[in-house]
Design goal:
4-stranded parallel sheet; binds flavin-adenine dinucleotide; alpha/beta; 6-stranded mixed sheet; globular
Length: 477
């Protein structure tokens, strides 16, 4: 392809998604002779790597999710549309997005799709009712409500059994998100909440990290995984490897060990961080292409120039693309989107799609923080952990946070949290915990959803009898 302008106007680029891929793709077109329309179902650019700090009361939503509209205020060739993309037509070159009940059709000459991935429950979507994932602002706020709410309920518990269940936190999946969350819940109970209750000692909280594979932080290798495991264990986190969670309900999880043993962990607060499933738009695009496929996680197996077969003007980037040796990380999305924007600009200057050099990923390494003052870091062959890695983690995350205001406030919040004992964002409301389930029950009008909602509410009253009764009432009603 050399890029053609359709009609009399400028070349129209539609970017879908306002995450790392969408935002960096749009920004990279700032000085190009194009009109960019960024369409996203969320009004913010979300910095997902720090979601766990929102969930555990360190940061507020504002620091990690500035309004995309404000971020792009100075980019005169870009407009932002809020709406969920429901249809992409590669033949007519249009994108349909929906905001409430209003559909908007936006034509494009070039398209960058960066709609990322969502949590995968490996076919057991009902687990989501009781074990939310950690992908969105709503997830993080719901989790904050669930975590802090569990301590509040434990203070009121009348039996040891109830208290134990409420003070047991189960995290499924020992990747970076699971590790970071486990470390932060442990610090929250040991440092921040210590001495703030009368009937319970928050330090009695049990944090259980369950992993189906045989290692913590598997992709980072045995050295760094081992470091993270030791540090978490020293903090009192219980790590259970080679253990599969086979059921989740209001009051706990059922686990199957590698020797076939099936056991139960009673827990009020569960978090799912075990897998990802690409946005369904990937499949929609692949089906309209000349033979592009999606992988098992629904990611688009793109061509070397990140396009789909037969449509050299349609780029798929970030977590939605499947490219060998490119991890589902921020750098993959940033570099992919930057590459796509460069190809669009080159097309305006007459370069054909056959002349494109393939996308090359530059691996800048990966890192995960475990607790205050402790992280693990991998850069090329260099692997290190501890305080230096934590400082590197701090600097890198500050660098990539969007906006000076966010950076300054984040530094202050980190100062308060890591050097002191308190946390600045400990607010939580009942609605944060139950709104998702209520909305699901309303939108589907499904008895089963309503039943699950009732069971979850029953769990909030923390008794097996209430959960069972709620279920029976809904069935009877
Ligand atoms: C909890 C967590 C921690 C992480 N930690 C790290 C880390 O430490 N380091 C690291 O490098 N990476 C980390 N990652 C991964 C990193 O955040 C992702 O790789 C990166 O965000 C992918 O960027 P993306 O643009 O492809 O997708 P996303 O950032 O997920 O953005 C997708 C965008 O698409 C929008 N969207 C989705 N569907 C639609 C639709 N139908 N219509 C319109 N808009 C839509 C969404 O609203 C969103 O704006 C983490 C991810 C999570 C969830």
């Amino acid at each position: 392809m050399s890029s053609q302008t359709v009609g009399n106007g400028r070349h129209r680029v539609v970017v879908i998604g306002s995450g790392f891929g969408g935002l960096f793709g749009t920004k990279h077109l700032k000085r190009a002779d194009v009109d960019v329309t960024l369409i996203s179902k969320t009004s913010t650019h979300l910095f997902q790597p720090l979601l766990y700090q929102v969930a555990t009361g360190i940061l507020s939503v504002g620091e990690i999710a500035p309004a995309t509209r404000l971020v792009l205020r100075k980019q005169k060739n870009a407009q932002v549309l809020l709406g969920e993309v429901t249809d992409i037509d590669l033949d007519t070159r249009t994108v349909t997005s929906r905001l409430l009940d209003k559909d908007t059709v936006t034509p494009f000459d070039s398209l960058i799709v960066a709609t990322g991935a969502q949590q995968s429950y490996f076919g057991n979507d009902r687990f989501a009712t009781f074990a939310p994932g950690m992908k969105t602002i709503d997830d993080a706020l719901e989790l904050r409500g669930r975590i802090l709410g569990a301590f509040e309920q434990a203070e009121l518990a009348t039996t040891q059994e109830e208290r134990d269940r409420l003070l047991t936190f189960v995290i499924v999946g020992a990747g970076p998100t699971g590790v970071e969350l486990a470390g932060q819940i442990a610090e929250l109970s040991d440092r921040t909440l210590e001495g703030t209750f009368h009937n319970i000692d928050p330090r009695d909280a049990r944090v259980v990290l369950i992993e189906g594979a045989g290692a913590v932080l598997g992709p980072m290798g045995p050295k760094l995984g081992g470091k993270a495991e030791r540090r978490l264990t020293n903090m009192g986190v219980e790590i259970q490897l080679n253990a599969m969670v086979i059921d989740v309900d209001a009051l706990g999880v059922t686990v199957k060990d590698s020797d076939g043993t099936i056991r139960r962990i009673e827990s009020a607060c569960k978090v799912w961080s075990a897998g990802v499933q690409a946005s369904p738009l990937g499949k929609m695009i692949a089906e309209q292409s000349d033979g592009t496929e999606v992988d098992r996680a629904g990611r688009v197996v793109v061509e070397p120039d990140l396009t789909v077969k037969g449509h050299p003007n349609v780029f798929v980037v970030g977590d939605l693309m499947s490219v060998p040796n490119v991890p589902g990380q921020a750098q993959g999305a940033i570099q992919g989107a930057t590459y796509a924007a460069k190809q669009i600009k080159a097309g305006l200057n007459g370069q054909t799609s056959q002349e494109r050099k393939p996308f090359k990923y530059f691996n800048k390494g990966s890192m995960a923080t475990i607790s205050r003052f402790s992280a693990v870091c991998q850069v090329g062959k260099l692997e290190f952990g501890g305080f230096i890695a934590w400082l590197a983690w701090l600097a890198l995350h500050l660098y990539y946070l969007v906006g000076y205001r966010s950076r300054i406030i984040t530094v202050i919040q980190w100062f308060v949290t890591f050097l002191g004992r308190t946390r600045g964002q400990m607010a939580a409301t009942e609605q944060w915990v139950f709104a998702r389930l209520a909305l699901e029950a309303i939108s589907t009008g499904d008895d089963e959803d309503a039943e699950q909602l009732a069971a979850a509410l029953g769990a909030a009253t923390n008794s097996r009898a209430a959960v069972d009764k709620a279920g029976t009432n809904v069935k009877a009603g």
